[in-house]
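OP here, attaching both records as promised.
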Amino acid sequence: MTPRLSVVVPVRNVEERLGECLDSLARQTFEDLAVVVVADGSADTGAAVARELAARDDRFTVVAGAGGGLGAARNTGVAHTAPGSAYLAFVDGDGVLPGRAFELLVGVLDKTGSDFASGNVLRLGAHGRLAQHPLFARPMRATRTATHVTEDWSLLGDRIVCNKVFRREFWDARSYAFPEAVPHQDAPVAVPAHFAARSVDVLQDAVYYWRNRDGALTGRRAEAREAAARAAAVLGVSASLAAVPEHKRHYDESVLRDDLWHFARALPEGDDAYREAFLRHAGEFVARAAPEAFAALPPQSRVVWQLVRERRLTELLALLEFERTSPRTHLVRGLRRRTAEYPPLTAPVPREAVALAPADLPLEARLTGAEWRDGTLRLTGYGYVRNLPATARRHALKAAWLRGADRRTLPLRLRRVNDPSVTARSGQRLHGYDWAGFEITVDPARLLTESATTTWKLVLGVLGHGVARRGGVADGGAQLGPHHLDEHTRIVPAFADGRLQLHAERVQTWLTGHECGAGVLRLTGETRTRAGALRLGHLHSGAAVQVPLERDGARFTAEVPLEELAQVRGRGPVRAPHGEHRPRDTYTVQLVGADGRRLPVAASATLPLGRHAVPGGRELALTVSARGNALLHDELPHAYAEDIAWTGDTLFAEGCYGGPARPLQLRRAGAEEEVELPVRYADGRFRAESACEALTLLEEGEWLLFVGEGPVRPPAAAGLLPAVRAFAGREFAVRRHGHDRLVLVVGPVRCGS
């Protein structure tokens, strides 16, 4: 019987990784597949590994390749697949697939009829750790079915084939084949396929684990041969799109933003041969690229490519170094027709390369602090127009107001602040923004309306050097939390879509207690409504567990059977970056009225932290959301910090932890780097301490705290964070990361220290 899915796996010098790859294919929940392994002249025993599996599983076949490289091996594999297969897929010999990868990809194609489906890609790093691959974060930000690259140009970043399943008739009708004897074989197939498809399906779910390889692009980009190969590949794809100028323009823009930009940034570290090869091959692409592609780039990129076009290597190297130390920074010249000026340039460039649009002078606004003082909300932060200095008070005219959903506005009191740390935070050396600081005070009584809930968006307006900008205020490290005006009224500062909002709420229902025993989770609280049921809504699937309330006036009790929670556990698609194992299932807590209306259950100010051991080595944890509402987590044991403080030159952290004793680790964000801290466990608690001398060995940056694979949760008590200590000319600060993680921020060594 012909399998529905044919999978091609080229094998060459991946002996150590091949077993894991083939095992992940053998364990797919979608079993109606046939795998063709192409042994392409390996110098190791990879072919023997594949034959051993083929002897046990008749879905696997091993064929010999001609040693012509990855593209030739893939083409050979396609020639040996069953022609009647409905679908076709490709997997590299060192890649790994989550168990449900093909179930998800084939399943969505069966429903939509699209020509191919593409899913999210995670990096597979040291110790099997998974993290979102940055190249796929934007294209795979959400699941979309029956879409197309012309509806979402970010899909141009989805240029590999190993995260896809193709409809076989689509593949054969266009006679697709991979280029042979050259590197970078994926894009010449994947990009034209995006345009040729009637529709494609995009999954946020992780379907492929891309292993970090020695000698990958990040290690080879300063080689002349690699630069030439990449330029040849993108030139070929660009030429194939020439019949439709709009398609070519968008593709050329993506190449200038991403593919060749990575090679441009490697120029300072490259030798003379690399620099000459880059100027020649990248210059050829620049000369042939659609002129409109440059107009969409930021000014610094336009100038870089202009210097490449003119082969002005000395200025190009100087500009790249300037961009490294002061990214997105330039001087602004002119009043009506403003242009960018870059100090490293010694000769002019065409005006179209440096012309500034309004979007090139954006508002930079961040909230750095929020505290309640004498019943008033005090907000501190900064706001400036990027690249227009704010070195004097007259450059920092500002206003702030709150805007409601009905367009009503509330002007706020704002005081301009001289804050030199704003310039330091800006990450550049050309401009001063000391007078960009602000302090805003908000009277909470003004936020209340007749509605039970009113949402206000904070808007900041800035005027300087004849340029006016207004917009929302983003998170700059402020520690936010709900503030109760009385037992039934609260103000909740929170970030939505990256911008600060204030929610004025009259609380009708709140949780006061919880306990677990005899196979049930018992929740108690009070409500001013006539609700008759409690609902735990599973965020990952939309499923719910609903139980009746026992009422005693305003007080209520609800008993949730643990068996019902276990039945919901793991439902729904698993989102990145967890791959196929979800360590945490989260439930919203709501009451349900007689009319079916759902009411969020607030966490009372005195609600104790809840952690209850349940069968399967998991625990139920009651926490508080960023909006101040109760959340229930069914999770692997996590460490919950209850106290964090600096005592002398030592950092102490302690709290509760119900799992097995595991190292407490600091993991550097964005890097595969980790450090273990001394920790002691006893009676369901942990205590860790580290002297400042040890912390000074850490590189500058953000270090997330983990126990095992679970992040350490921050303290519920207000006022403990941030915990800041200066030592040996550096600042060390323990802060919240997002809403429910802890991070140690290690500052740079200050000049003169």
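Record two, same layout:
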Amino acid sequence: METGEDFGPWLARQLKLAGRTQAELAEELGLTRAAVSAWITKRSVPRPTVMSEIAKALGTDIGTVHSRTTDTQAGLPVTWYHRPGYQDGGRDGGNAAAFAFDADVQVLARETCQNSLDERLTENGRPVRVRYTIHELTGEMLDAFRQAILWDELQPHYEAVSASASHQKVGRVVHAGVQDMFEKGRLVLLRVDDYNASGLVGDDYDNGKFAAVVRRQLESLKSDRGAGGSFGLGKATLWATSALGMVLINSTLSSPHEGRTERRVIGRLELPWRSVDGGTYAGPAWLGRPDPDSPGAQVTRSWWADEETVERLHLTRDSEEPGTSFLIVGAHDVASLDEGQADRATEDETATDDGTRDIGSMHRRLVRALERDFWAAMTAGGSRLPLLETSVRTLRNGQVVIEEEKVDPSEAQPARTRALRAFYEGTTVDRLTEAGQVALRTVPLRLPRGGGLGGTLGTHQAVLLVTDASDRDGVPKQVHSLRGNRMTIKRSGVFGLPLGANNFQAVLLAGTAAGDTAPFAEEAEEFLRAAEPPEHDRWGQTEELTLRWSHTAHHRIARLTTEINAAVKELVSGPKRSGDEGGAKLRKALTVPTGRRAAVKRPAGPGLPELDGLEASIGPDGEWRITAEVKLPRADELPTMTPVVLLDVRSGSRPRLDWSELVAVDGCAVEDDVLRFTPGARRAVFSGSTDVTSHPVRTTLTRLVLELRAGKGE
């Protein structure tokens, strides 16, 4: 059980909350002020008979005074504090950090699980356990919850936001959320609980994890090189997933604050600027106990709630294990609307008109995201324990709709989990000769020196695992790349594979994920972490990489990709057949109608590299994935060329797409998306993927054009 706070500090805070002085309490108890002062300074404690008199004076029961695990209800009540409008007249249309991510439960799963992994308590060796609970409220339970969150206080603010909804994106989302709650009489709560994590420790205002999450934006206090997050943006996905902009928090601390650890509660509301009853408000608001030390006792801070309060707020935790519960109020999943018609056909009676709050769809998408992004963190083998356990359950008014589903990585990712276990258990082989084997290669990542200095700091040997794939493994012939926290950072195909290569899955372990003995593992972890964007879904050029290393540092990652592709192709290439066996069959299958084409006359003088072959497919995230072959003329020096991806349209200029990845496969090098060809080479091969954020329309509705332009390709 939780140990209560020392009597002196607890009593001092109760007097502050009640707006009373030590002298006033002493007079009511019939004691001297010196006696009360001795309690406050911990020089003595009151006798048991005096304890009951103190309870009566504070308007609470004797049990609260003895246990001191919560504050009394005397004095300033729990309420909402809305940040006043800026004195210079500035206005915010919402929290910009929330726009870094989509309102997507799969993005939410990725960011929240990553944060829980970063806060895992490592001393006991146990995994962090993350549970997602989708809970739909209707009828009396919805009414009781609105009363618990003091809806009557909030309603004028929501009405003000709705009145200006046509001018603000955030306002439109909030208006739709309120409309859904009242017109359809339902509200979806999505709770994220983690256990065996540090919890939101630290003071309400000073530097600490609590203030970083609840009070501040764009602040990350993760100093571990292996941490997944680094921008302080991940927490914004919680508020982005709430159509009402509201998140309630209950944290059990790993180290005491104010002498206690359990039921530290606060709420935060993210709304745009608004005018209510003649006052203006900047945006955010906090649900908490007014802080008597703040000006006018208006600013609210976290409070130590009782069990009844956390139950009414749907924040009751399952155990005393440290960790945090985040309750997203009015959860919606706009990205689910992009799912295919086949998936919609399987939706059950829980579906709604717009689909964004369908609890069945949310459940399925959460499970898929956890399987896809955190299979490695949930995989154990040899002496290695899993870092993470996850589950999803769905309720309606407290009754089970979908039973709790514990995510099993070996079910969704059998080939990749087999590969990782083989690495942990030391059963890998040098070459694949039988089904079920896992081949291991090391691939070099040459780390640059920091501060713009030239040369190489050292070579990190990342571990590449390759094994055969089955139908259950999803998209075949992919490499999943990860580092220390074992979250999948990058999913990429291997281009230019030999004809007839068997289906396979590959895993790249970089940084500390490559093992305790891998050279320069910590340095590689830091370098790759800096090469990740806020989404942490790829490695490439970033501002941090440029500032801390150099503007060409990302070329080291491109070379790593080239090494990975070469190693995979060498491992999956089938053994050569003797004589011409198989060759005749292949020629027969690829027979081209007879008839020789007339040779095309080329102009005199040095020629330009020409595209001579192209393979293109649509990747799992909707990106175009391209492998191209270039025919090179005979010349001592070849010009640089820029591959340009365009969309084919019937009229007008062709929209140009951006590259998310462009790598050299053979006979060339890539620098700033420009091809430089190897002297003396007659052919070159490069591959790449387009950036889906640059696609003006859905990929399946487009046709691709690839051009090779001289120079920078402008």
